[in-house]
Amino acid sequence: MLGTGLSNAEIAAQLHPSTGTVKAHISSILTRTNCTNRVQTAVPAQVAALLD
After folding, report:
1. Which pLDDT does position 14 carry in this prediction?
2. Burial, 3: exposed, middle or buried (Cβ in 10 Å; 0-12, 13-18, 19+)?
3. Lowest CB count within 10 Å: 2, 7, 27, 50, which one?
4. Cβ distance 43 to 5 under 8 Å?
5. Within 10 Å of residue 41's Cβ, how many Cβ atoms?
6. Are 23 and 11 in contact (CB under 8 A)?
7. pLDDT for 2-50, tens place per residue?
8. What are the helix (H) ranges across 1-52?
């Protein structure tokens, strides 16, 4: 969902956790991937989806 450009609120609306929980998970993803913003994580996700 991050790779498709959805906001934290949009992701929360679809998966039903709180927006804060979504934000925490995305922050964790950014930290683990050494990325500084959502776009840096979204591009590899899009590329991976294209390769599958």
Report:
1. 96
2. middle
3. 50
4. no
5. 19
6. no
7. 878 899 999 999 999 999 999 999 999 899 989 999 888 888 877 777 7
8. 8-15, 19-32, 38-51
